[in-house]
Amino acid sequence: MPPTDPSEIRRLDRLRALGLLDTEGEALLDHFTELAARATGLPIALISLIDERRQWFKSAIGLPQGMETLREFAFCDHASQCADLFEVEDARQDPRFADNPLVTGEPYIAHYAGAPLVMPGGEFIGTLCVIGPQPGRLPPQGRDLLSTLARGVVSVLLLRESERNLAARARAESALADSEARYRALAEQLACANRRKDEFRAMLAHERRNPLAPISTAVQLLRIAAEDPQRVRRTAELIGRQVAHMTQLVDDLLDVSRVTRGQVRIDHEPVALDEVVRDALEQARPQVEARQHTLQVAPAPQPPLVVRGDRGRLVQVLVNLLNNAAKYTPEGGHLTLSVRAEGQDAVLAVKDDGIGIDAQLLPHVFELFTQARRTPDRSQGGLGLGLALVRSLVALHGGTVTAESAGPGQGSCFTVRLPALAAPDGPAAADAPAARG
Length: 437
Ligand code: ADP
Hints:
five-stranded mixed beta sheet; 9 helices
């Protein structure tokens, strides 16, 4: 039954807080038992701790350290009632102890003297005691010495307690500092996300209005020049371009919203990367040519690398990277596209010698709505959705995408890494033989 007496509960709490029960012996405390045994000339000396059901020896001379006996047989428990020292001169003749198994059997206690270990709050936690097999009585200086040594033991325990408290406090403080730092980082992230959302809203409003102006001008032009077929054709082309731009924006927005809500499902078919490259080049070429870039496509590995995934989505990834390279490279720039095998991976890289990416922006380019500050040389920018989509789509394929740039004006390189189904020398090669061309 757990104790109900409040002072016993406090006593046990204090004892447990010391963290001494059921631990190894300690040299510092052993000095006290050694001194007690030597000074009294008795063969047994103990630091005995009393919990709710037993006495347990933290330090012991003449008996094993760590030994325990039931509390009801503990002489030491009686010391709790004494201010100074509890002494039994002949236990065999004492009606309280005569039939105690520690008297009738090992260690055959006859003479017992125990000085209580009392903490400053009055909690009795055990004794420093000495025991002999013959009846006897400690001389006054022996009694004094035992009491003084007991106070010494208490001082050591208090020191330990404050060390433990300090360590616990240091631990609590460092945990607090950790969680504070985490909260601060989180708050910063939230503030940053909020800022980006606001910027995005402003940009969205701008982007939606942007194509409308040329479209409405074009409509007016059509009214005036309805008879001029060449003008009509040019105007229709202009409207077509602006509508395509808006459609692209809306598609990207819908896509991002679906991806962030985890609603995008992709195929898991074997896809040959040379086909992905061919489709992506076809889609990105108009943008590349419009900006008069040179696009070099490095020779692809033969047989072609195969990955498991969604051909359309992989094309979308590559087109995004190629369009960005074209967008963020001043006219007449140089772009390179390469596909290679690296270990178990298929690696696609799109490189440009364009405006590059600032070191501060670089770690965030794949986050939603992230964009470099708009300057005239990047007036081509969209809404900061493309790379977030790229990262999510690549992740759905079990891959990664990374960006590198030595800084503004130094060009950029985007690398997509996907698990290859059929790397030329990979063990997975047997996985998809049918998918190879
Ligand atoms: P958007 O192009 O619509 O702004 P993205 O998500 O595609 O959005 O790109 C995010 C930002 O990353 C761009 O605004 C741009 O600052 C930077 N970026 C992307 N690709 C390149 C590149 N090839 N060179 C330089 N900067 C780039």
